[in-house]
Amino acid sequence: MSEENVEIVRRVFEALNRGDLDAAVEAYDPEAEIVTLMSGTSHGPEGARQALEAGRRNLRGWTLDPNELIDVGDSVIAIVHIRGAGQHSGIALGDLMALSFTIRNGLIIRQQSFRSKEDALEAAGLEE
User: CA 71 to CA 6: how far, in whole Å?
Assistant: First the structure.
């Protein structure tokens, strides 16, 4: 089952990077909880859409490239390189962050953002 979970997360990133928000949010359970660093907590596919749209508003050419997908049983930790350009400045920007996706019955039931891989692994009860 865990390889299936990794594939679900991979498909979400692929959909996002081709600009298909509809396909990305289909992976979220109606009761999903999305916890972001910037905008707090939202719920369900519509909450996921709002969080993703906020990221796109902040960076032109926004992409989320998963450098690493770590299988943690019912969760997947994604180490992601965020790329884009400032909306007003046009300055190219890039940063690494970690996202944890908890999956049940083939749908994401929880997504949480972390500032680092270490923080995400610690939250999952693991160490690097």
Answer: 7
- Whether residue 74 contacts residue 104, with contact meaning beta carbons closer than 8 Å, is answered with yes
The DSSP bridge pattern shows strands 40-43 and 59-72 to be unpaired
pTM: 0.89
- The per-residue DSSP string of the chain comes to -HHHHHHHHHHHHHHHHTT-HHHHHTTEEEEEEEEETTTEEEEHHHHHHHHHHHHHHHEEEEEEEEEEEEEETTEEEEEEEEEEEETTT--EEEEEEEEEEEEETTEEEEEEEESSHHHHHHHTT---
Give bridge partners of residue 99 from the DSSP assignment: 78, 113
Confidence of residue 5 (pLDDT cuts 50, 70, 90): very high
- Calpha distance 119→11 (Å, rounded): 24
Q: What is the pLDDT of residues 98-117, one digit of tens each?
A: 999 999 999 999 999 999 99
